[in-house]
Amino acid sequence: MEKLIITAAICGAEVTKANNPAVPYTVEEMVREAKLAYEAGAAIIHVHVRWDDGTPTQDRERFRVVMDAIRAELPDVIMIPSTGGATGMTPEERLQPTELMPEMATLDCGTCNFGDDVFENTMPTMRAFGKRMIENGIKPEYECFELGHLDTVLTMARKGEVPGAPMQFNFVLGVPGCAPATVDNLAYMVSKIPAGSTWTVTGVGRSAWTMAAAGIIMGGNVRVGFEDNVYLGKGHKAAGNGELVEKVVRLAKELGREIATPDEARAILGMKPRQ
Ligand code: KMH
Ligand code: ZN
């Protein structure tokens, strides 16, 4: 099996300091959490940004400042800025981080319920995001919350509307209102991806750990972080994203998977080597 790529989703748009006081908002807090995750073994940081009061934003300049600050400390790390932002944001707002020419960015693959909200990703929105990523040479991470999302993006890739092979999927399972985080759902989605693709699994809430174990043994990759889960175990809040990544590293060691460095992750994902 390839080495395991660990992604740390350090911040998200929904989780707050009321959920866990270590959730980062400020630039300094973002750098602290990115470093803790990287030092624990994360090759990829999935970046959302907040204003200092915790309000989620897709402001291009806020992304620039946060990503530059992380890059200054972690020159080799892969960053995947979000184009999902928070529910209710417009497509134009959400696209702003793609103007910074990141190596990768998320591309959300369909509309779905998202807790009590609706996360809107119409086909025209997806086409616009795909076009931007083709033009700017950005490798998408295709976020699939439902089986239909996978079918949608595979159809768009066949038509050349979004970047094609090699495709990287993130199966985000367990969002309230979307596909539950079960091994059979994951296995079914993995069975539908084109040969030569790569995939990551994200389990939301307590399913973070069952999905991490499944990802490790099935030969996929794993995302953890405060965006998805703030607990290390039942009733035990993580002190930081580093502890969440450390737990994945421990599981991987027990199950015989080595951990990929960022440059190894670039090679596994079929990306250009770092300049
Ligand atoms: N905050 C969610 C509504 C992404 O980063 O692309 C969407 C999200 C997906 O987090
Ligand atoms: Zn996200």
Protein described:
- The protein has 275 residues and is α/β, with parallel strands linked by helices.
- It has a single domain (6-268), classed as TIM Barrel.
- It is 37% helix and 20% strand.
- The chain contains 9 helices and 14 strands.
- The protein has helices at residues 27-40, 60-73, 91-95, 123-135, 147-158, 183-191, 207-218, 241-255, 262-268, and strands at residues 6-9, 44-47, 49-50, 56-57, 78-81, 104-108, 112-114, 117-119, 139-144, 168-173, 198-203, 221-224, 231-233, 236-237.
- The strands form 4 sheets. It has an 8-stranded parallel beta sheet, with helices on both faces. Strands 3-4 form a two-stranded antiparallel sheet. A two-stranded antiparallel sheet has the order 7-8.
- Helix 7 packs across helix 8.
- The longest helix is centred in the last third of the chain and has 15 residues, at 241-255.
- The protein is globular and about 45 Å long.
- The site of zinc ion (ZN) has 7 residues, from loops.
Which series of helices and strands comes N to C? EHEEEHEHEEEHEHEHEHEEEHH
Figure out the total of helices.
9
Strand content: 15-25%
Number of domains: 1
- From the alpha carbons, calculate the radius of gyration and give it in angstroms: 17 Å
Structural class: alpha/beta
Name the CATH class.
Alpha Beta
Q: Helix amount, in percent?
A: 25-40%
Q: Choose one word for the global shape.
A: globular
Which stretches of 5+ consecutive residues score pLDDT under 50?
none
Q: What integer is the average pLDDT?
A: 98
Strand elements, count: 14
CATH superfamily membership: Aldolase class I
List of distinct ligands in this structure: (5S)-5-amino-3-OXO-hexanoic acid, zinc ion
Give the strand order of the largest sheet, numbering strands 1, 2, ... along the chain. Answer: 5-2-1-12-11-10-9-6
Most strands sheet: 8 strands, parallel
Rounded to the nearest angstrom, the distance between the terminal CA atoms is 27 Å
At the fold tier of CATH, the topology name is TIM Barrel
